[in-house]
Design goal:
mainly alpha
Length: about 350
C-alpha cells in the first residue's frame, strides 16, 4: 500500500526554494571551475608546454634515425668517471651484492627487488600526478596584486627544458649503461641491440609476467645512460613542491629512493645520477631566465580576457598598465601606492561571485 503525502502551498514553496538554491550553487560551482581553467590565455599556456611537446617528439621519433647516421656508442667513458668518483669502488647492486644467495635471505631479496621495481615503475606517472597536484594547489592562489600564480606552468616549462637537454645529450653522446658494461665489457655496442631490464628481471620472475622485459625491450633510446632522468625528475619535483616541510621531506626521501633503485637495479652509474642533478640546476636557471623574458613578451596577452574582465570588475578600478612583472618579485617601493589602491578597491568589493581572488593585506 503506497502512502502519499499532500504538501500545502507553503511546504511546496519551501521545496521549490531549496531546489532553486541547490541549482544556483551547482551552477556557480561550475562557473568557478571554468573560471579557474581560463586564468591564463590559451596561447600563453600552449607556449609554456611547448618544451614538453618537443621532448616527447624527440624521444618517440629518435628510433627512426638511421643507424649509419648516429654517433658511435661510448662504452668506456662512464666506467672511468665512475671509478674516479668512487675511488675504484662500486655501488652497483648495493646491498644485494653483500647478501648471500641463500634460502634464508630469499624474502629479504624479494623485498629489495620489489621495492626498487616499484620506485622505478611509479617514476613514469609520479611527475604527471605532481603536475596535476600543483594545478589544484595553486588554482585559487593569487599574487599580492590579484594575479594568478604561474607556478604549475613554470614547472612544466623547466621540466620540458630538462628533458630536451637530456634527450639531446643522449642522442648526440650515446653512452652504455652499467648492465651492458657488466655483460660485454669494452666490446663495441650497436643500435640493433634491444634494451634489457637488468635487475628488474627479478621483479618479472616474482610477478611471473614480463612487465619490465616488455617495457625496456621497446625503449626508443637504449644507450642513454647519461644523464639519468630517473635521477633528475625526483629533484625537479622536490624543488617545485610547495614550501611545506612535510612535502619537502617526502620529496627528498623520494630522491634517495629512486637514486638507490637506479644503482641497485644496475640501470645507471652514480655519475649518471649526479649528471642528472646538474642538468636540473642548469635547466632551472635557464627556464627561469627565459620565462621572465616570455612574461614580458606576453605581458598584454598572458591573462585570458575573462580573467582580466573579472579582475577589473572585482577591483572596481582600472588596473595600471605598466612594465612590471606579474609575480611576487615586484618592486614594492615603486608600486606601493598602486598596489595599496588596488587592494583597497578589492577589499571594498564583494568577492562572492569570484572567490578565486582572495587578496592578502599589505
Amino acid at each position: 500500500m503506497m502512502w502519499t503525502r499532500k504538501l500545502n502551498k507553503r511546504q511546496l514553496y519551501q521545496r521549490l526554494g531549496q531546489t532553486k538554491e541547490k541549482f544556483t550553487f551547482t551552477l556557480r560551482h561550475l562557473i568557478d571551475r571554468l573560471y579557474d581553467l581560463t586564468r591564463f590565455s590559451l596561447t600563453f599556456k600552449f607556449v609554456l608546454i611547448t618544451p614538453v611537446l618537443i621532448w616527447l617528439i624527440m624521444f618517440q621519433f629518435s628510433k627512426y634515425i638511421p643507424y649509419n647516421q648516429r654517433p658511435t656508442i661510448d662504452v668506456t667513458t662512464l666506467p672511468k668517471l665512475e671509478s674516479l668518483l668512487l675511488l675504484g669502488s662500486s655501488l652497483q647492486h648495493f646491498p644485494r651484492n653483500l647478501i648471500p644467495e641463500k634460502e634464508q635471505f630469499k624474502d629479504l631479496l624479494t623485498f629489495l627487488d620489489m621495492t626498487a621495481a616499484f620506485a622505478y615503475l611509479i617514476h613514469f606517472v609520479v611527475t604527471w600526478i605532481f603536475a596535476v597536484f600543483l594545478f589544484l594547489y595553486y588554482r585559487k592562489k593569487t599574487t599580492t596584486l590579484g594575479y594568478p600564480v604561474i607556478q604549475p606552468y613554470t614547472f612544466l616549462w623547466c621540466f620540458g627544458f630538462l628533458n630536451v637537454f637530456a634527450v639531446g645529450t643522449q642522442l648526440v653522446w650515446p653512452t652504455a649503461p652499467p648492465w651492458y658494461v657488466e655483460a660485454y665489457g669494452d666490446t663495441p655496442a650497436n643500435y640493433t641491440m634491444p634494451g634489457e631490464p637488468a635487475g628488474l628481471v627479478h621483479a618479472d620472475d616474482f610477478l611471473q609476467y614480463p612487465l619490465f622485459r616488455n617495457l625496456y625491450g621497446h625503449s626508443p633510446i637504449v644507450f642513454g645512460s647519461f644523464p639519468s632522468l630517473h635521477g633528475a625528475w625526483p629533484i625537479v619535483i622536490t624543488i617545485f613542491a610547495p614550501s611545506i616541510r612535510s612535502l619537502k621531506i617526502i620529496g627528498t626521501s623520494y630522491v634517495i629512493l629512486v637514486w638507490w633503485a637506479a644503482l641497485y637495479l644496475n640501470h645507471h652509474f652514480l655519475v649518471d645520477l649526479v649528471g642528472g642533478g646538474l642538468y636540473v640546476v642548469v635547466s632551472y636557471y635557464i627556464g627561469s631566465w627565459t620565462l621572465k623574458a616570455l612574461k614580458k613578451l606576453f605581458r598584454d596577452k598572458m591573462l585570458s580576457p575573462s580573467f582580466k574582465f573579472g579582475l577589473d570588475k572585482i577591483s572596481g578600478c582600472e588596473l595600471v598598465d605598466d612594465d612590471c612583472e606579474l609575480d611576487e618579485m615586484m618592486d614594492a617601493h615603486e608600486y606601493a601606492f598602486t598596489t595599496k589602491q588596488q587592494l583597497l578597491c578589492r577589499k571594498a568589493a564583494s568577492t562572492d561571485a569570484l572567490p578565486l581572488l582572495n587578496v592578502e593585506e599589505v
